[in-house]
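Table S7 (text form). Paired inputs.
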Amino acid sequence: MTTIGHFNLRSFDLNLLVAFDALMAERSVTKAAQRLKIGQPAMSHSLSTLRALLQDELFIRVGQVMQPTARALSLAVPVRQALRQAQLALTGGDVFDPATEERTFRIAMTPEVELLLIPDLTARLRRLAPGISVLARIFPYDSIDPPMDDGSIDLAIGCTYSRTSRRLFETLYDVDLACCYNPALLPLHHPVALETYLSADHAVISQSESLQGCIKEALEIAGVELNVVTAASGFMSVLAAAQVSPVIATVPRRIADRYGSLLGLEVSPVPVPLTLPPVNMVWASHTDNDPANAWLRQQVRISMTGAETIDEQKMCEVA
């Protein structure tokens, strides 16, 4: 058993750990003070004390956000785990009541997931947990490594992610694509033929310097190339381009089915077999048994798939 240095702990105000955890979560002295229901001067004093005791700036203001230093990031997980263990010991169980809880969950997600998840998840949370808010953070498809280890992100949902032993994941659904076009500007036969599809002008989603965007690799595997005239980072921009221009927008089928008709667009299957990665929900391994995180995952699962239970074959530990 590890010996606890009681003298050192006695001289250290453990409330400072609560303040540190709030600062890590909010990245703002004002918001951290509000979270703990104390005054801003008291929170500023706690931060000054932490800086003096730990001999590190811990948080550096960058614009409107307090960015944690390397020292702060190294402390984030141990401090969060220590507070959770203290809560467990004091309450006799890890209590989470979504009906009365007041907190903000941060979810990193790709643009596709944002359009599909946020409407349904918001409606669901308003019914079940009026005190819970969601802050969506967008990350690119090709460089997803959300900072879940320090607690600043609770979940990540998207097509790709960094595979590490600290991550767990569950596949939510497979991705297939559809064509969206304005039949008044492109009087095409339905379904769109392969020759017509390949000869048309296209609008696609892209978060890189490539015009082919997020389907570039899938196109290369299929051995085809599209004449992309517009690439944008948001699906609604791509669909709006197809609404007013004679172009075909190639987007995920779920996006096309939900938003295509709202813009008066025709939806047709993509006549090329394009293979894309599935959409996964990813979380840090140390939050796997956390009731709050487990509850959040269930709300996402239901909102995205309608599934009330976990498909154990679709959930596995990342190697």
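Next pair, protein 2 of 2.
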Amino acid sequence: MPSPSDQDPSTAADRPGEASLPCVMAFNANDPSGAGGLSADLTAMSSASAHVLPVVTGTYVRDTSAVQDHIAFDEEAVTDQARCALEDMPVQAFKVGFVGTPENLSAVAQITSDYAEVPVVTYMPDLSWWDELAIENYLDACTELLLPQTTVLVGNHSTLSRWLLPEWEGDRPPGPREVARAAAVHGVSYTLVTGINAADQFLESHLASPETVLATARYERFEATFSGAGDTLSAALCALIAGGADLQTACAEALTYLDQCLDAGFQPGMGNAVPDRLFWAHDDDEAEAEPGAEPASDSTLDADDFPLDTTRH
């Protein structure tokens, strides 16, 4: 039998089923609780039929209740991981989660700027567990270095509002267009704002540009507290964009996928619930619910129905 080095690489690449998945590079921290971070990226993106190139930027020290600490890799280790993989495989999208330090943000921004044609989905998690000065330095670096490279910024309404509109003094909270406008000042094309309080115990998510709200999804407030929902949503969105879906369709499918992950969520420990990102794999009859697959029934969100989606969460 010939060794791998003796085989014609073009022959291997032409085999049916090989090289058929879009590649997505995810920069994120390891999460030993399995709730978010690279765990969420790997399972959500795989569910959306993407091949994940996970770049470890550090690790949380956490359980399902709270983050206790974070240990960051140095920027050289982050850069070496990414460059090595990128020299071998083309990527169709980048996802950037929490990378730990301004230096790592700089390294990631340099890499994404070298692939300017590749869309970047940036997710900003809640950093309230962290030191106040560290938060300020990290957000400042993200504003200066990464947002100019960002195609879609994803985050909770309160997190994005405090970051992008710190001096807001209106009688009402800033709306999705106002958050999108604040992000656009720094180069962001689109903003997906989640967790907006609505009437009758509903929460809304809005995909917005500075000019308009492109789509709205409404969810009934869910009593359980989840860890990892934001990473799950942003990872699914990024993978669907990499697979060729237009932004509104990708957003609709990612929000529906998150809703189903939360509906199937479970509590593995003594803390918060965790989304079941592989809910579709537990029953062959539910395989159609995989993001990007054909709807299983008329009740499943269709892209033509968006932004009129109303679901249970």
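The first strand starts at residue 23 and ends at 30.
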